[in-house]
Structure formats: C-alpha cells, structure tokens
Design brief:
helicase activity, 7 strands, OB fold (Dihydrolipoamide Acetyltransferase, E2P), alpha+beta, ATP-binding, 8 helices, 198 residues, two-stranded antiparallel sheet, 3 domains
Length: 198
C-alpha cells in the first residue's frame, strides 16, 4: 500500500494530477489544485482505495487532511468523491469547527452536500474523538491561530491565578481581533493581561 508519494507534477487536471516518481507516473485524485505548478516537486500523503477492478490513489498535502478524508468517508452516504470535495472546500480547522458547532449551513455550500448528508456528517461525527486541528478556527474571520500558542498563553494566565472561564473568554476576544502576523506568545499574553486588568 502506498502511504506517500514525492515527485514532479507532470500533468494537472481539474480534480487530479499525474505525479512523476522516478519515471513512473501516478494518477492521483486531489481536492485542491490551485497552488500546484507543472514541473514542481511535491509530496502527497496517499490514501489507496482498492476495488476488484480498480486501484485509486487520493493525495493530500498533510496527513491530517488524509485523516479527515477517512473519517468523512465513514459517514453513510459520503463516498470518496464527496469526501474529497469537502476536504477541497474547507480547511481542517473550519471543518472541525463546523462539525463541533453543528453548522449545517456551511456544508450546504459544498456541491453534492444536501440537507440529509450535512445532518449525517454532523450527527455521526459530532461526538466522536476527532483529531484536534493543528490550527484553531476563529469565527467570522479567515484567520487560523496555532493551538500551541493558545495553550501556552492559557496555561500562563491560569498559573497567575486567573480563572479558566475568564481566560478562555479573554483569549477568544483577543484572538478574534489579532492580526495573524502578530500571533506570537508574548504578544498574545500581553494583550490578554491588558484586557483582564482593564
């Protein structure tokens, strides 16, 4: 079974590519191709789908995208094609956030996802132990903040004697307004302290 491929992109199609690995061209289905360039060398984590008459390869930029693809295809009515469309349309932090917060309407925006499928995705996955995204999604903004920063700042504030609920509330407010380029531990901690102390 193929777990990962690294090679040069020799062909780019709408939802797939051919990646040349030492002279062998692998046809790989992908969810996103907007950032791909012909001739560049790229690595993809691979999910291998084996049927009686076909072996299909699905490629992902990160291992976590592959994880969520496998989780999505476990939902009744969500096949490989639809799971790939969802991964291609949503960043993993947003997908995690939408499932956890039962945001059905976000799934309606994806071609092929109707009301029943959206409900199944949320109903079947909401209470599951989903992999924690590498970054966290902030409501109503396109910003993604490293969860390590959030955790470290939270731990620091709690160790200073502030309550957990107060810390979480302040962190949410600070991260929502923070420019992603300023998302450093020291900067976030300083802004949180200012808000807490008034």
């Amino acid at each position: 079974m193929i777990g990962k491929l690294t090679g040069k992109i020799s062909e780019i199609f709408i939802n797939s590519i051919i990646i040349d690995v030492h002279g062998v061209g692998y046809y790989v289905y992908i969810g996103k191709n907007g950032s791909l360039i012909l001739g560049e060398e790229r690595s993809f984590h691979i999910f291998t789908n084996v049927k009686e008459d076909e072996i299909s390869l699905y490629g992902f930029a990160t291992y976590q995208e592959k994880e969520y693809f496998e989780i999505l295809r476990s939902v009744q009515g969500v096949g490989n094609k639809l799971a790939m469309s969802i991964i291609g349309d949503m960043e993993i932090p947003e997908l995690y956030h939408s499932i956890r917060n039962s945001e059905h309407s976000r799934f309606y925006k994806i071609v092929g996802v109707g009301k029943k499928i959206a409900q199944r995705i949320i109903n079947e996955l909401k209470e599951k132990d989903l992999p924690l995204p590498i970054c966290s999604y902030q409501d109503n903004t396109p910003k993604f903040v490293n969860l390590g920063i959030r955790q470290e700042v939270s731990t620091a504030l709690i160790s200073l004697g502030f309550g957990k609920n107060e810390v979480e509330s302040v962190l949410n407010n600070v991260l929502k307004d923070l420019d992603i380029s300023e998302a450093k531990i020291e900067k976030v901690l300083e802004m949180c302290l200012k808000k807490i102390r008034g």
